[in-house]
Design goal:
By secondary structure, the chain is of the alpha/beta class. It is built from eleven helices and six strands. It starts with 6 loop residues before the first strand and ends in a 6-residue tail after the last helix.
Length: 237
């Protein structure tokens, strides 16, 4: 059997201990390799590291004091369109998240994430998908819902493709347990939290999540939640 090529990363963060911890977590998975690390002292450092190491994913901390994250993301995406930028931050404000995604970032993670969530995010982004932290996804959906309900801005809501639909579980394609997992994903639950709520293991949650994505023909949790809201398969609670 031919070995699968590793996903190569460049990690940019101003805290050495954090970088070392993240590197150790990522390299517990044999499919991931941290090729280089940077302190994020300026925007050009990230660009130079990407040019030198040609990674698949740049894991970028945007909270470094004095670091122009907007300019860094713009430069990385413009100069290296094949490289995926995955944001690390402590902020979950939907306006900022939306802004960096518009700049071209492929994912957005909060620093309070679990280790397996980080690994999953890197793999999804490195494979060409998108990944947003469950809590951030929930905030974005709430903002999306507020925008859609503003009577004075119907044109903006229609641009998002939003319309009210009758709530109904998708039992025609999913099991009841998969429907439960989909709803909890919409609520912003992590795999661990879903497992605790449904009294099942994280491995079982991951299996259900995989089946949900497969049945919906989507690449990641964010797409699953957005499409489910449009179809009326889940509720905002």
């Amino acid at each position: 059997m031919v070995a699968r090529e590793k996903i190569k990363l460049v990690l940019i963060d101003d805290h050495q201990l954090f970088r070392e911890g993240v590197k150790q977590i990522l390299e517990t998975d044999h499919e991931l390799e941290v090729a280089a690390e940077g302190k994020g002292e300026d925007e050009e450092e990230a660009t130079q590291l990407v040019f030198q190491y040609q990674p698949d994913v740049v894991l970028l901390n945007v909270d470094t004091p004095g670091f122009n994250s907007v300019e860094a993301i713009r430069n990385l995406v413009t100069r290296n369109p094949e490289v995926k930028v995955l944001i690390l931050s402590i902020h979950d404000d939907e306006s900022y998240v939306t802004h960096v995604l518009k700049l071209g970032a492929a994912g957005y993670m909060l620093k309070d994430m679990e280790a397996d969530t980080l690994i999953e995010a890197v793999k999804v982004v490195g494979s060409g998908g998108a990944y947003i932290h469950p809590k951030v996804t929930y905030n974005l959906i709430q903002a999306y819902r507020r925008l859609a309900s503003e009577d004075e801005e119907p044109s903006r809501a229609s641009e998002l493709g939003y319309k009210e639909v009758e709530y109904r579980k998708p039992l025609h394609i999913m099991t009841r347990r998969e429907c439960d997992v989909l709803q909890l994903m919409t609520d912003g639950y992590s795999n661990r939290m879903i497992g605790e709520d449904l009294v099942i293991s994280e491995k079982t949650v991951k299996n259900h999540t995989y089946k949900v994505l497969q049945k919906m023909n989507v690449n990641d949790r964010t797409q699953a939640v957005v499409e489910s809201l449009k179809k009326g398969w889940v509720k905002l609670r």
